[in-house]
Amino acid sequence: MSAVFSLSSADTARLAAAELPPRVRELLGALIGLCRHALTAPLILTVEALEQTLLHDADHARNPQQQADLLAQRGQLHAFAGHFSDRMLDALADALARLREPIAPVVAAAPPPPLIGMLGLSLVAEHEVDRDLLLTEMVRRETLRSANALNLLGQRLGVVAGAPAFEADTLPLAPQALCAMVRKLAEQDALSAEVQMALYRSFERQVLERLGDVLDRANALLAQHGILPGLVYTPYLARSSSTRRIITQSVGSGRSGRPSPRVPTPMTGWGGSAPPGSWSTLMQDAFADAAAPGASAGMTVAASSVLHEMLQQARQTPQPAADPAALPSAAVDAVLARLQGQASAASAMTDLQAAVVAQLRSEHGAQATLGSHDRDNLDLLRLLLQQVQQQQRPDPVPAALLARLQVPLARAAMADPGFFVRDEHPARELLNHVAEAGASWLGDDDVDPQLLQRLAQSVQGLLGQDARTPEAFAAANDEIQQHQRAAAHRAELAERRHVEAARGKERLELARRQATAQIDQCCDTQEPPRFVQTLLRQAWADALTLTRLRHGDDSPQWQERLQQTKRIAAITAEAASESSATDAALAAEVESALLQVGYHAEEAAAVARRLSTPGGEDESTSRTELSARLKARARLGEHTGAQALASDAAPRSEAEEASYQQLCALPFGSWFDIDDGDGEGALRRQRLSWYSLLTGHVLLVNARGQKIGETSLDALARQMAAGRAQLVTEDKGRLVDRAWQASLSALRTLAGRRPQEPNA
After folding, report:
1. Which of 525, 530, 606, 522 is closest to 565 using CA atoms?
2. What are the Cα distances from residue 113, in Å, to 108, 121, 122, 169, 305?
3. 680-686-689 Cα angle (round to 5)
4. What letter does residue 261 receive in the DSSP assignment?
5. What are 446's strand-pairing partners?
6. What percentage of residues in the chain have a pLDDT greater than 70?
7. How far apart are CA 183 and CA 135, in angstroms?
8. Band of pLDDT at residue 754, cut at 50, 70 and 90
9. Dihedrals phi, psi of 272, to nearest 5 degrees
10. CB-CB contact of 92 with 23 (8 Å)
11. Is the distance from CB of 48 to CB of 205 less than 8 angstroms?
12. Which of 574, 527, 519 is nearest to 547 (CA)?
């Protein structure tokens, strides 16, 4: 099932206003949805990594002035970071919606105006030169890395636009266009030169380095919709005769070798929407050294002959060229057709094979048997279903559906020679849908009862049709995919709510960290009494956190709170005396701030008196009573789950650090199989919906978008290094593909044994 991306109302309105043909509107809508799905996480990580870099630099600043400058620069990012990803994606969607409009080439770094004699000479700021050089180098590097994908996408978008092929500098998804969008946003928000440079570097690491995968997915999406399918770009390179000879020898001597494998792509789709695996390639890889001259991935007959030969070797019993008792395939299919119409189904393929042979012998004599081709197909199907059943949870409904599918699958495998070698087959697609509905990695809350009902209806409808035709399976798949698209949309909406809540918690925790840092700085400088420090870190920290959260660190309200904090530290650091008086104005300000965060009037007044009096003394309330009241209060932000990061202090091993770095580069929505902790090693599939590089928090949801729990990047990295968490990649995302790969491995192992001698 191809991934489906939902469009927002703004994107729908944007495409409707462009007055595009329906077919073009559909294609551009799919591209916009793909871009939002693939680029949202990298764009969010861009500003998060930038903030983390500035915080790190501030912590390691050489002097207080440099630290203050870095914190001020980070303050510029507050408003910018909140809407950066949305503004970038909106700009990209606008560019795609205007694809049919004539546009000029986009430049990331505009060249300076031409000089006119001596009057044109002017000084250019050094940071502007550095910025232009940095952007130009970024564009150059990524254009070289993605040259092939850009050329293919330019050809396909030219077809969509009804125009000649697009050049790389006019593609909305090209590095040049994306860098121009980032620069425009940074200049609109008047970011300082240093912050802009750091932003561009972070953008290259988080977005441009992943752009090649986005371009490949865009090309695949357009190809699936019939836009130049099978298009290949092969540039012509003039070579000398010696170079051609070296290349020819390399190709000739590398016939048995294989190109270096591509790094697997993490699976991010909903509902098992990983792309189908190439069964012909799996067969070729598994039996590359088998004695089957002429077999290749594109030759169905040759590939099938390899499977049949391996089965003969695995059985260790040579088959005669022609068995007179073997019945034709039509007779076998007639028996299967009658079994398909029966209400009961065999519990295993071995029972089905035995029932078929028994029925044939009752009708055609005791010597009747299956032909070698029919027996091979049934044995291959048995191997496949055995592997599928090993990955099923003890759920009676999917198990019953798999049992009822056995006869239709057997008829389809016997009727189609390419059933086990074609890259896609509707019957295998239906098998995968049923198998994944009962997969062992699903928890009780992950199962969709409506999907099970739809699967049961589709299987029941299939039993009344001629299962030899792929059209019967295709119709059943269409009904299931319609339901899965709707379920994926619901899961995405549910996940989005949890992500927004998690991001809100992150902002709250970051605000609390900054408030704590400011209080610690004042306490280290002024050294107020210990009880005053306790009040500052408990009560007053809540007031600072709320102000930072509401207004940001570049607001006058936040600056006012910082000044109040300094006044509190300075006043309370003074020694108490008989002439000491409470600063009434400061006390009123503190009391008002505490009331805003939910303190009772009596408590707020008591804390305010102590924080505005020299020595922090107050005769009207005792320290013990005030401490007890504060401990009984729920503090602002203590529900953010900071305790989940307690293990982060322990140093990571080399393997754990490698897993941590891999996690920090993963796209949002990556799937993991994680040990559920029951002691039996059972894995449960969980979706890495969101994570933060600033706080290390991780949000996990299930296949229905429901929140499973929260952890940290550090804890998840340790689980990966220990083998208790495994990243699910697209090449291993589909259950039926993994089952077939395991079947081929088992078949090869059996076929590798030499047949015994007759007298042995």
Report:
1. 522
2. 15, 10, 11, 20, 69
3. 155
4. P
5. none
6. 79
7. 9
8. very low
9. 65, 40
10. no
11. no
12. 519
For residue 207, the model assigns a pLDDT of 92
Sign for the CA dihedral angle at 320, 322, 324, 328 comes to positive
Per-residue pLDDT tens digits for 18-75: 888 989 998 999 899 889 888 988 898 898 888 887 777 776 666 666 667 667 666 6
The answer to whether 700 and 502 have CB atoms below 8 angstroms apart is no
Strands 697-701 and 670-675: unpaired
Rounded-to-integer distance, Cα 546 and Cα 597, Å: 7
CB of 577 closer than 8 Å to CB of 596: no
Determine the residue type at 70. L
- Per the CB < 8 A criterion, the answer to whether 613 and 531 are in contact is no
In this predicted structure, what is the pLDDT of residue 320?
Answer: 53
Strand partners, 671: 687
Q: What φ, ψ does residue 711 adopt, rounded to 5°?
A: -145, -160
- The SS3 call for residue 21 is coil
- Tens digit of each residue's pLDDT (9 = 90 or more) over 581-634: 888 899 999 999 999 888 888 888 888 888 888 888 877 777 887 888 777 776
Tokens of 267: 């699976």
Burial of 590 (0-12, 13-18, 19+ CB in 10 A): buried
Q: Report CA-CA distances (Å) from 425 to 183, 274, 319, 546.
A: 47, 15, 29, 58
β-strands 725-727, 670-675 pairing: antiparallel
